[in-house]
């Protein structure tokens, strides 16, 4: 199984693919130097498989590597995920 995250800046969205097929998405809005994660979604047939957590981690890795944005978690799933992954909480403190 291979997964990848693709950034679609024109749609304010990251798309999560498994074996080449879209299985999830993460929507955001930009405000100044902040990226507000507003919504995440995994294909209902795949929920509970851990793909949501894998998607959020992949999106955060892309934000960390490709941007200097400060992350503001508004999606409840992302808020919960961040609480369990302190190694990513520094993204909430960026300048």
From TrEMBL:
Pfam families on file: Acetyltransf_CG (PF14542)
SUPFAM superfamilies linked: Acyl-CoA N-acyltransferases (Nat) (SSF55729)
All copies of domain N-acetyltransferase, residue ranges: 6-93
Alphabetized UniProt keyword annotations: Transferase
Superkingdom assignment: Bacteria
Gene3D superfamilies: 3.40.630.30
MF GO annotations: transferase activity
InterPro entries: Acyl_CoA_acyltransferase, Gcn5-rel_NAT, GNAT_YJDJ
The name this protein goes by in its record: N-acetyltransferase
Organism encoding this protein: Lacisediminihabitans profunda
